[in-house]
């Protein structure tokens, strides 16, 4: 005799019983079919064993600007090189604007990236460095 729960999930229940997972309630059957997401505990996995989903509130800071984001201490010259490189099409163009060599621009950028990585905010690409410059107040969107 097959017992049918809500939404006709008897087939799911039978399959789970055959797999040795035991009898299920109608509510658990609904979650097992994926019709609804399983409820979650705040600090652990849900009833189906899935880890908690991150919420927007998990990423919000304390409300103070820059309080939750660690900033590396960039020198004035590093900031100048960073902004010149962001505005240029190439390292050579930035170097010409600053009257330095392209390898010096590369050295500054390597040090800037290392400093961001050291505070847990890696910036492996030009786009990442642009985002960091915006986040840390070295430039604004109105300048671009």
Q: How is this structure best described in words?
A:
It is a single chain. This protein is an all-alpha fold. It has 2 domains: 6-53, no CATH class; 76-143. It has 7 helices and no strands. Helix 4 packs across helix 5 (91-98), helix 4 crosses helix 6 (102-118) and helix 5 crosses helix 6 (102-118). Residues 3-9 and 59-63 have low confidence and may be disordered.
Provide a quick synopsis of the model.
The chain is mainly α and 144 residues long. It has 7 helices and no strands.
Q: What gap, in angstroms, lies between the N and C termini? A: 71 Å
Unreliable segments of 5+ consecutive residues: 3-9, 59-63
- Overall structural class, as computed from helix and strand content, comes to mainly alpha
Quickly count the helices. Answer: 7
Overall form: elongated
* Overall strand count: 0
List the helices and strands and how they pair.
Layout: H1 10-18, H2 26-33, H3 56-59, H4 76-87, H5 91-98, H6 102-118, H7 126-135
List key phrases describing it.
144 residues
